[in-house]
Design a protein that fits this description.
The protein contains four helices and no strands. By secondary structure, it is mostly helical. Helix 2 packs antiparallel against helix 4.
Length: 96
């Protein structure tokens, strides 16, 4: 998501929430949305809601995946630094 890479993950999350709010308002508000849910998932409204929920899920999943990738990248860098320090200490002891 480009918003996340430019402004940060918190701004991207706020943008997604704002988009969800505008979609709910565009569909007629929460009352009309619940009425669409009651009609069932096989109706045209149900299919639209499923599509919107899928897009929201993919967007939130992409944000979390990016956050997890950054977390594990940081862990990998710490391990690499620890290995380099250990290697340097081993070289120093072998030269002495």
């Amino acid at each position: 998501m480009r918003v996340g890479s430019v402004f940060g993950d918190k701004t991207a999350l706020i943008a997604i929430i704002g988009l969800a709010y505008s979609v709910i308002k565009g569909l007629g508000g929460p009352d009309k949305l619940f009425a669409m849910f009651n009609k069932g998932i096989a109706s045209a409204e149900g299919i639209v809601i499923q599509g919107l929920a899928l897009l929201l899920g993919i967007s939130l999943g992409a944000l979390m995946l990016k956050k997890m990738a950054a977390y594990y990248t940081g862990k990998l860098e710490v391990v690499e630094l620890a290995l380099k320090i250990q290697e340097t200490k081993a070289e120093e002891t072998s030269h002495s």
